Amino acid sequence: MTSALLLAQVEFDVAQNIAFAIIAAIMLISAFKMVTTGNVVHAALYLVIVLAASAAIFILLGSDFVGATQVLVYIGAIIVLFLFGIMLTKAQLGDDDSVEKEQRSMGALVGLLLFVVMAFALIDTFGTQEIEFGNPEPIAYVAEPVDANDLPTPVREALNISANSGTVEISEAQFATLLPEVQRRVPGAEVRGNNAQIADAIFSQYIIPFEAVSVLLLAALIGAVVVARKE
Amino acid sequence: MISLAFWIETTFRSVGGLAAVLLPAGPIVYIFLFKMMSFMQSRLGPTEAGPAGTLQLIAEVGKWIQKEDIFPEKADRLIFAAAPFVVLASSFLLVLVVPFGPDAWFVNLDTGIYFALAVSSVSVIGILMAGWASASKYSMLGGLRAAAQLIAYELPLVLAVMGVVIQAGTLNMQDIVLAQAEGEIFGWGGIGNPFIITQFLGFVIFMIAMQAELTQPPFDMPVAESELVTGYLTEYSGIRFLLFFIGEFATAGVFGMIASVLFLGGWWVPGLDPDSNLFNIIGPGVMFAKVMGVMFLVFWFRFTYPRFREDQLQKLAWKVLIPLALLNIVFTGILKVVF
Predict the structure, then answer these.
(1) Is B284 on the interface with A (CB under 8 A)?
(2) Model-level pTM?
(3) Maximum distance among all Cα pairs of chain A, rounded to whole angstroms
(4) ipTM of this complex
(5) pLDDT in tens, B293-320
(6) How far off is chain A from B62, nearest CA to CA, in Å?
(7) What are the angstrom distances between the C-alpha of B220 and each of A167, B88, B127, B231?
(8) Is B125 within 8 Å of A137 when comparing Cβ atoms?
(9) CATH number assigned to the domain with residue range A10-93+106-126, chosen from the 4 options 1.10.10.10, 3.40.50.1110, 1.20.120.1200, 2.60.40.290
């Protein structure tokens, strides 16, 4: 009882924080197992868990586009190709003796160095600033005259507009009183969520790097075909 | 709006997800795999267990559960045991974004359909795990064939969805349903705008790619029994085989839901206001009817066509479906700008 009260007093997303702790623990254990296991297929499968956990953290932070992309690109494509490649060539069961183990201390050193640099960068940038889970998505709205008959029912109900009141214009003040799930149904409203922001950034500010990367990937693809074809 | 404690909500969602994935699988297997297949092959199918053999499936499940769960001697036990669960997990992740009514959804992600297409690729990992961990050549070959096929047909699947997304102007599954309910075909909104009409090419490509993703015949090279015994399923028995079997038809049901949301208007039926509360009650039923319609097509093709050869299968994906899907995107884009 007291512990429940204590938790209630702190402004704290309990469920999300517990979920984060569980996911992070799974991720760390899998990452460690991945670099210490003696079997290549096991390593690839541990990598799947690590990547799935990072996708889960992205989704927990309300960035479902990045999370889904992580799953689509890394788990659905890259790891499948890894496994495919390993299984087509050599994929023995049990420990693989040819797995190099002398480089481990070097690897640990590099990992530690990377950890220190990233931890410093993160603490230096964000400090004690709190990150909110799943930010509500901003909805942009430009008032425009619409036929009341075309308005979706929840919008009409919330604003007490009857279906046959002709052309109406919903002012921005009226718009602000609506619930988010009703707001997005108003004609002229546009959800400026994470996805829209990412799309805006990619297709306006970063359009040239984006296109350059696309062409680079296409060139790599054609190059791979040329190298693989002998005749 | 009623708000519940987080854990109650989570329990409801988990139970709902289980029901949404597992409940359609039973009717699909009974109506199509048992009865329709028998009808098309001029035989009776199950008749003894229950009225008209309706309890046959329960008898089969009972049989599999009591069978011994055999592990091959050289198998990688942990991965062998986990593989069927990875395949099932993919269907449970898929059903998350499917809406069953205006307020009846598990999560209403802005990137709904994109998320669905992303998690549908997780099942490949499960199949590769099963193929490798069985320590059998047949399983291995079956697993590799399955992976090659699923990767090849994922592209036309994604590209066919693009047409719908361009036309609806959103990735959100709920908004795709509303776009069809509120849409008009050349100014006539009598039946809304189910995208099966305006995106017919997309629908055809989606259905073919879906058939291949579900490894239903004629795309069942991974389990070609005349060459590979049963591919990656060879070494599985008892409850783990049952899990794969449930996974196959549960995933078929979930893909049917996604197809009906994208092309058939989801939980909405023409003539009714999509915002009425009625749809929260009849929505799941409407979805079930539409899923059965989609499944009828899948199983009709399954029982009609002979199996593809591996090279024909790959050619169909890369040389026919993908170019057609790309053309569909270009035309849809042009028409979207013009109208």
Answers:
(1) no
(2) 0.82
(3) 80
(4) 0.81
(5) 999 999 898 888 888 888 888 888 888 9
(6) 32
(7) 57, 19, 13, 10
(8) no
(9) 1.20.120.1200
